[in-house]
Amino acid sequence: MKVLHFGSYWMGGNDIVALMAKDLKGVTEAKIVDTELYTGRPSPWLHKDSDPEHQAVNWINDDKMLELMANYTPDAVVCNAGGMSLTPDMHRELRRRGIVTVGIALSDPDVFAAQGQHYASLFDLYYTNAEVSIAQYEAIGVKARLLPFAASPEFHRPMPSVKKIYDVIIVGHPRADRLAAVKELDKHFNVGLYGKGWKRWGLIPRSRQVNGVEHVKALNTGRAYISFSKTVAGFINVKVGLFEAVACGTAVFTEEFPEMEKYFEYGTEIVGYSSLEELVHKLKNYLPHPSKLTTLAENARARLLRDHTWVQRWEQVLGDVEVRRRGTRR
Questions:
Q1: pTM, two decimal places
Q2: Are residues 43 and 180 in the same domain?
Q3: pLDDT grade for 330, boundaries at 50, 70 and 90
Q4: How far apart are CA 53 and CA 31, in angstroms?
Q5: CATH classification at residue 287
Q6: pLDDT over 60 (residue 286)
Q7: Does the pLDDT of residue 177 top 80, yes or no?
Q8: Positions of E strands within the chain
């Protein structure tokens, strides 16, 4: 199967879309297009329209599409995150040609109102990272499919040469719940911070932005990794960073909520908590016992390699594409 994949990479080499694109090429023939959405310059591939409700939507230019497909005829076209979609006219043209269109949202439910609800119905297949968003799409007549987060274990991997210099690591940007956690955790543990924006809260020089291989190294510097499940908009969600930390062989501590149990088992693969006080208590129970942390990390990584890689997610998508193609050929 030949796939044309559109994406852009605001976090560099460890960007989710970049890793997904790399692993797609390991599964099938794929042409990867970086739409240059995050360069700070106007994208040669994208444009906005005049509708004020569509200001968060990035439409792929019809002329660029037709120029590209003059030399490359895909079986499927994927628009991966970034608020990107083919125009309605191009969707119709590709459907006429028997080419399946696939849309993927990686920041739901937060971006549903500004992005997904405006173009999800145009795609033949549409995927969301958030279980809660399935009902949001259903309410507008779209049968969205769940595409959970995963990891690329060839990239995010254990690095035995990297010293575990912290008891606990937090990788992400500062938010109210994270600031409260750091304030409390600092009283008990050696906490490593990675991410942009901590400086304004007086937590520098401990924090720095890490991308590419530096991101992988950072995930290997802690004996335990804290995964915060709350999104910017306040939804509870399974985060991609959790999968990446697991892939790096770092023991993960995260809030307890039902959706998580579909991916990892509390107690044997990850550690759950329901309050900051309980998190501190459980860290104090685990950190003095390296073998317990190692067992957790090994169990979780084995589960990830079995069930939660981007290769496996792409196999799911490509299987759906093939079913769709067979249906249109009848």
A1: 0.94
A2: no
A3: very low
A4: 31
A5: 3.40.50.2000
A6: yes
A7: yes
A8: 2-7, 29-34, 46-47, 58-60, 76-80, 84-86, 100-105, 125-128, 145-146, 166-171, 191-194, 222-227, 251-255, 271-273
* Beta-carbon contacts of residue 211 (< 8 Å; ≥ 6 apart): 11, 12, 13, 14
Residue 119 near residue 85, CB atoms below 8 Å: yes
* Tally of CB atoms within 10 A around 16: 25
**How far are the Cα atoms of 128, 144, 255 from residue 151, in angstroms, in the given order?**
16, 22, 20
Query: Is residue 156 a part of any domain in this protein?
Result: no
Does any domain span residue 82? yes
Do both 172 and 227 map to the same domain?
yes
122 and 249 assigned to the same domain: no
Count of domains for the chain: 2
pLDDT number for residue 58 = 96
* Separation CA 16–CA 321 (nearest Å): 21
Which 3-state string (H, E, C) describes 247-299? HCCCEEEEECCHHHHHCCCECCCEEEECCHHHHHHHHHHHCCCHHHHHHHHHH
Phi, psi of 255 (to 5 degrees): -65, 155
Q: Is residue 159 part of a domain?
A: no
Residues 6 or more apart in contact with residue 113 via CB below 8 angstroms: none
Q: Quick check: 249 and 224 in contact, CB under 8 A? A: no
Same-domain check for residues 286 and 315: no
Count of positions (residues) in the chain: 330
The backbone region for 221, taken as left when phi is positive above 0, alpha when psi lies in -120 to 50, beta otherwise, is: alpha
Produce one character per residue of 199-212: b if its CB has 16 or more CB atoms within 10 Å, e if not. Answer: eeeebeeebeebee
Measure the CA–CA gap between 253 and 279, rounded to whole angstroms. 8
Q: 88 CB contacts (<8 Å, ≥6 apart)?
A: 122
For residue range 116-162, list pLDDT tens digits in order.
999 999 999 999 999 999 999 999 999 999 999 999 999 999 999 99
Signed CA dihedral, 104, 20, 8, 212: sign only: positive
**Residues 134 and 253 both lie in one domain:** no
pLDDT of residue 206 exceeding 70, the answer is no
- Residue 257's domain spans which residues? 166-307
